[in-house]
Every structure is written in C-alpha cells, then in structure tokens.
Amino acid sequence: MKKAALSLIILFSLLGCSSEENSSTIEETMYFPPIGSSTWETKTIASLGWNPSQVQPLLDFLELKNTKGFIVLHNGKIVMEHYFNGHTANDTWQWNSAGKTLTATTIGIAQQENLININTSVSEYLGTGWTSEPLDKENLITSRHLLTMTSGINDENDLVILSNLTYLADAGTRWSYHNVFQKLMDVVAVSSGQTFENYFNVKLKNKIGMNGFWNNGIIYKIYHSNTRSMARFGLLALNKGKWSNEQIINPTYFNESITTSQNINPAYGYLWWLNGTSNFMLPGGQTSYSGSIVPNAPTEMYAAMGAADQRIYVIPSKKLVIVRMGEASNPANPNFAVSGFDNELWQKINAVIN
After folding, report:
1. Which of 45, 80, 174, 344 lies in disulfide reach of 169, CB 3.0 to 4.6 Å?
2. Residue 305 belongs to what H/E stretch?
3. What span, in angstroms and rounded, lies between the C-alpha atoms of 132 and 7?
4. Range of 155's domain?
5. Is residue 199 in a domain?
C-alpha cells in the first residue's frame, strides 16, 4: 500500500509539473484595443525580459532626432508610449508616404468586394486620357503597376497633373517612386460611386477605431492622425488584415502586399517597404544597392515609410509594432521615405529588446 501511495504521489507530482510547464508556454491571445475608447491595455518591459537600462538612451535619441510620438506594441498591448517636443497623445501629425499603405489596403478591400481588379487597365475605371501618354501605352498601366511603382510614367515631376503624366517606359519595365499612385484613390472613388475618403472611413478607418483624416497636400492627399491611430493600423498589418474576429482585408491580397511585387526593386511590395532582400532601390534614383534597407532591423520586417521619418515597423515573429511620428531626424534631408535614421534607431531598439 505504501508503494502504491508513493507511486500516486510521484504521478500527481509529474502531472502537476507538466501542467505548470504547459501553462507557461500557452500563447498569449492577441489584444485589440476597443473601438471608440481611449482604453488600451499595457504590459511592462520587465514582463518581456527586455533591458530597462537601455530605455533612456533610446528615448534620448528619439527626442534628439525631432520625434513627436513613439509607441511599441507587443501582441497588441502597449509596452512603450512617449511623446516629445510639445506633442501630446491627442495631437495629430501627417503620415506622409507612410499613408500609401492605407491606399494599398483600401484597394485590396475594393478588390475583394469585386469593385475592381488590380490587373485591369486603369483606363477601364478612369476612362482614356487620364495620362498624357500615347493611348496604347496608357492602356498598359494597371492598378497593380500603380501599387508597385512600375507605371513607367515620367518621374521628373511628382506633381500629379495631366501635363506631367508623360511616357518614359512601358508599364512593368521600370521601378520609379512616383506620386501617381494617388490615381488609385480615383479608381476606388469611381468604382464605388463615392469619395475615396468616405469609402476608406467606412471600410477601414471606422472598423479599427482610427481617428484621422485626409488633407490635400501640395502634391497628393496626406493622412493625418494621432500616434495611437497609426499603431492601430500597424496592429492590423501585424495580423495580416484581421482585426479581432473580422478579416477586413483578404489575407491573400495582404500577403501579396508584403511580398516582393516585381523583380526590379525586391524591397517593394504594394506600397509597403520590405526588409531583408538581397538588394533595394530608393526614391529619386535608379541605382540598385546591395543588402537590406535597414540592416540592423529584423530581415522579416515590413514597414510603412514616409518623408521626415514617419514609420510603422511590423515584425511578426516578435509580435511587435513600432511607430515613430515626428519631424525629419535630419532636417537637411527630409524627403526620402528611407533614410539612415532607421538603422540608427534600430540599433537603439535592439539594445532594449534583445
């Protein structure tokens, strides 16, 4: 009897250990902040085993580099949220070209609703004569070409007016960063029978609780929001287009968005920048550079990047979304979507999270 009792004690002890081990490895459920509420759950740096001694150097760097808002999400919960240089949590700021990803996402929604097909000529929606190209060349341009920056339209002037939209190369044969992407907004407006902003608000903004607005910039519409709204969109991107229990964007389309979209610039998807490719091109030139766009960042990272260093970094394996809003880190060179700032920032981030 004593042997039997002892065996039972050992068995229960082993079961207890197994149960405890299993509970420690249970994956935390992804958190989504409620719509229409300022409530947002948080977690501590200590709970993640990060290095607290490196937090202040990161914050000092961000402030020095003209940052206004900075947020780090892990599994949807806020780990870091800081505001600098007079900016507050309620203040809005422009996304610049980081907002191109909002347009790409809206295009994906319009396609899944069978309003458009990205492989159809843009002229099918806007009519012929939306460019100043010869008709046979204009008809080659699809929405996919606009999503991938391969329209072939002359890039000498970023102001998108008819006289500037002239032929330079056949669509699909040349990668060139150009603001003609905004014609995608017209495609959505025509195909949906409403303004782009209204369609965007109903199908995307309101569904994830963003607070922003589109404003007419000098050369194209620019999105403005507070930093948390930018983080909300980053969280949607981390979850491949799913928000809580609703698949807002078709996951097949979203995965295409964050995958090399053409063989000219491997670091570009559908208006998303991709890290970890063998080579990349930058706005404003035709040079191909070897390596990743942000060597210090995880190779899997995909990012929304805009002028003056507006950033949403998404790192799926680490369940991280990192947002930076602000003025240009280097005021002497504010115009490029990708800059050396990213690599410096990631050196500081790595010191905290690794």
Report:
1. 174
2. strand 302-306
3. 86
4. 46-353
5. yes
